[in-house]
Amino acid sequence: QVQLVESGGGLVQAGGSLRLSCAASGRTFNYYTMGWFRQAPGKEREFVAAISRSGSITYYADSVKGRFTISRDNAKKTVYLQMSSLKPEDTAVYYCAADQNAGARSTNSYEYDYWGQGTQVTVSS
User: Fold this and answer.
1) Which of 9, 42, 49, 124 would disulfide-bridge 119, Cβ 3.0–4.6 Å?
2) Rounded distance, CA 110 to CA 57, Å?
3) What does the pLDDT look like over 6-38, one tens digit per residue?
């Protein structure tokens, strides 16, 4: 099992940047594919980015490609989401997720077994 805790959310102006972190507990962090999802009010949870166990493969939603970067530090048991050129439509609660069986291109929330509590990102225009 793994427990996930996100941090780094906040209020930022459009065009600004934020870095989200997701710290994991447990000894087998490097066994898990990690993903970031987001959910805006009144909308379904949507895929943002995923990274393979070693960090060598990353995958992004088209809406964030070129603006967001996912990375991981297995020694620190942490996955990051660097967000740049933020837009008001990026406003959402951001969740990190983990799964031992998901691939780096797993974009469906049901493919991930473990979830953090979420961190709010608000982008003002």
Assistant:
1) 9
2) 20
3) 999 999 999 999 999 999 998 799 999 999 999
